[in-house]
Amino acid sequence: MSADENQQAREQLIDLAAQFYDQFELGEIPHMSVPTRTKNNIEYDEEMDVWVYGDRESTRSANSVRGARKLLKAIYTIEFLSEQLEEDRSSTLRELYYLSESWDNDEAQFNDQDESNSMVEDLEIVSGVTREDFHMRPEESGATIMGPLYLREQTRRGERKIHCQEDVGEGGYQIPNNPDTIDFLDCDADFILAVETGGMRDRLVENGFDEEYNALIVHLKGQPARATRRITKRLHDELDLPVTVFTDGDPWSYRIYGSVAYGSIKSAHLSEYLATPEADFIGIQPADIVEYELPTDPLADSDINALESELEDPRFQTDYWEEQIELQLDLGKKSEQQSLASHGLDFVTDTYLPERLSEMGVL
Amino acid sequence: MTSFQSTLGDEPGIAEELAESQQSISIAEFFEKNKHMLGFDSGARGLVTAVKEAVDNALDAAEESGILPDIYVEIQEAGDYYRLIVEDNGPGLTKETLPKVFGKLLYGSRFHAREQSRGQQGIGISAAVLYSQLTSGKPAKITSRTQGSEEAEYFELIVDTDSNEPEISVEETTTWDRPHGTRIELEMEANMRARQQLHDYIKHTAVVNPHARLELREPQEHFKFERATDQLPEETEEIRPHPHGVELGTVMKMLTATDSQTVSGFVQEEFTRVGKKTADSIIDAFRDRHYGREMRWRPPASHESIDLHAAVEDATANKGPDATTAFADAIAEAVADSDRIAHFELREAVESAAEAVEDDHGTTFGDTVRENAVEAVWLELIDVTEADDDAAAETADEDEPATDADSRLVADLYDLADDATSTRKDDEVIHAFADRLAGKFEDPEDVRHRFTHETLREYVDRAADLTEEYDDVSFGETARENVTEAIWDIMATVPDDPPLVRELDGDRDATSNLVDAMRATDIMAPPTRCLAPISEELITAGLEKEFDADFYASATRDAGVSGGDPFIVEAGIAYGGDLPAEGTGEVMRFANRVPLVYQRGACATTDVVKSIGWRNYGLDQPGGSGLPNGPVVIMVHVASTNVPFTSESKDAVANVPEIEDEIELAIREAARDLKSYLNKRRSMQQRRKKQNVLGKILPEMAEKVAEVTGRDEPDIDDAIARIMNNVLVERDVEENGDGQAVSVVVENNSGTNESLEITDIVSAEPTNLSDGANVVEMDGEWFVKWEPEVSSDDEAALEYEVPDDATFDLDVKGVESEKLTVKQ
After folding, report:
1. What is the pTM of this model?
2. Which listed CATH number (1.10.3470, 1.10.8, 2.40.160, 2.60.40) goes with B248-292+496-520?
3. Does the beta-carbon distance from A24 to B694 stay under 8 Å?
4. Which listed site, A334, B306, B511, B795, has its alpha carbon 20 to 30 Å from B686?
5. What is the mean pLDDT of residues B174-194?
6. Least CB-CB distance to B719: which of A17, A29, A72?
């Protein structure tokens, strides 16, 4: 992270403040427009092959007490971020929330963390600087990589060269908050296998799947953090590795795939930078539930709602997903990754994954 | 049973025995036993009632003689009793009438007059005297002096309850310092537990009688209520009854008593607001009820094979061919020319045709000929010559619906019924109905087809019932009503002369028709000169005088009529200020300017106030009904020539629908003003709140923005004015050679047009003043006055030049301070 980059991010923030300043001077009501961050306002960018925000905007204006408070908070946040950049420090989103308590102005303090999170998102969008470049990080990422990859990470304590199979324990290599500090040195992997749950990741590592199939096992840890998505994209773009995603067979897990492949609604302004549209979904597919006779749970009402809402989600409007989701609604059932264990602990590595990956043309 | 009967038979004297104990009761005796009916049911209440009766009398007396009332009330403790003294500055009473006024129940000048006054029956004050003598055994002591007389009369008297006559114990002349007036002193068993009601009564009296001066002296306290106006209530006049408010019995009595010969004369003479035109309308309405209307049928259309010409010719004999043809022509033409024609209209046409032909041809057309012609044409028109299928239509034979030979009436009624009923009704059904209805028309003996609305409705009902029964369809109330009205509308009022008054006299049914006709006719509301409403202005003045509130509203309705008596309802509302914010609001009830302090729950006024949804008007109302909460006083005044009270003690207005409706409208009218006041206040509060918060946040934001960008603090007044939709008045001063050019710019950011009054006080003489402004010099200061009208989102500027060292001071009026931002 160079001082230059810090400076650039800082200037962009200060420009934003200057914009408010000019509005005051012109006798205008200070305001700030950001794209509306809802499902209805994301659209497909054909050029980039990802989903980005549409034209709908929400305006934060000092016209109302609420809006004025928001803008006041924005100014305080800008000040904090620009100081942080100047000092080359970093903080977590949660720290920002608590830190606001120390601000001299009661009106500027955040009421909850959702508010401060969304404020950072607003500023990201309006200034065009990513959160990482503001030196803001989420609480924990903890996502890991295991596989034949040799890389160099620029840490605050100097450069580290790490092999993600040989230099790490069973836990794998921990992905840093800003994966752009990593340079890839060497890679023997044939493809990336992104796995939703920790249990399944551990099963694959224990069964030596990464060694046997030259796979780079990326642990998503549920809904993947930005860093996880960013490194996945870089691995795909820079090393030309195919990306596959292996999750549970329920609507929430499809969204995990969706955010890897198409970007998430909350960070659609960064889709270009985070999403890997070429990523393929391994399963568990609703079709697998039938084919492999997997143990199931019935769909709850919330699951059905989520599936129906996915049918309207622009990210899932492909023939493949419509077919799968309709099938699942017909079945009325869902299955977890680990239900594959009903055919034995090795079933997933010996049978299911090889079969699916061959089908998909990865193996 | 039988044994008892035989006993009765055995003692034939029992009825006589019982009859011996029957005797008439004096009214005074009756009230002696029924004191509660007059409001003297307890010592506490008796005192209040006595004050009330005396004060009401005093006010009435003074007003009647055009004197501004000045009334003094004193309550003294007198051993075991209380002594009540009421003094007024009225005209005084003559020696002859005085004893009767105070010593005889039901003696008064008001009972027979249709005119607004406080007292009506002539019971009140004598009842107080009666109560006093019953409880303390002491006579009433009355002093009265008439204007101009040397001395005052002094009486001590009681009511003789056996004869209901005054019993005078002392009668003498005395001296009195008042030039005119009356003073009454009563001693009675009483207590002061009802002091609150007494105070309410006096205070409320002061509210609705802003022209009166009142003073109340109690053993411990002393209140004075000064006048708010020197304007006496307008003098009232007696009026005749209004046609909308009289009952059958009254009209029958009036018919017997009247000198008029004709109904027209009767209604014009005996009622108010009835002139020739209204009398005609009443009589037309009366004819409709008394005689009924005549059905008007369509004249034959060209395609119908009806030859009226031939019919007339056939019916006319021995008049010579030319005259006969001319006669027939004239009639046929007259019929064809009319849209529809009734029997009497046909008769008129025949009469005029006959006369015209008589003139032209010199042939006499006698009554018989005319009669024959009328009958011939009429029978053609109503198609009686056709086969007698009326019976067939009645019984509606199942196998052969009467389609072949529709009479003209069926076709005519079909069209009417079809227009009047919903389009959903099947054609067949309407047809069947029209057929049956035509049957009813053909039935009656009166070939003229004359009947009342009631009969018409019976016919329609019968036809509809049959249709429902045989055709198995519904023919609802609305459809029946619509058909009835459609037919009734085309029927014609007959020209028959109404009966004379002496014919009506004693004829209950005909009189009832007349009463109905009077009620159905639109008649102007009764004159209000018999009423003396307080007026909106004085209600507000009265409320302002007695309540220290933030807001006052009042409404005076137009006069309405109830039971032949005109009435006016007025309402007033006071809100906020020093009124108690806790608990329910206060309701003040008045009838003819008299406060009603008892039986609040039984009063129509209270019922109406409770029934109003006060939340709509911005007041708190727990549960959405009942009395509103908060700092509010609601007053209602019912003025009438005869206020309907629930009892003789005159504590509560009875629930008369017409009056209740007007009370509601009056209250709502005043409440609407309250609502807009409260809305405005609320929006100003919100604006103030927003201004307070933004006034804090925006400068802080500006400060922070300046800090982050490293610039000077920005100027935020314009932005704030715009955010607050405010009117911004801003001064701009520029160097201009030796002097300075000043411009005062008004920027209206609000949604409405604003008129401002701007005064700029300048320490040196301004020159080159822009248009619309003027300058006044006072003591070395120049007042630049400018009154611009600035429309929404517009600007206006005042410009002038002054020497270098001038100072300014800007004063802006015409815009609420919450909406104004001034930058000097």
Report:
1. 0.57
2. 1.10.8
3. no
4. B795
5. 88
6. A29
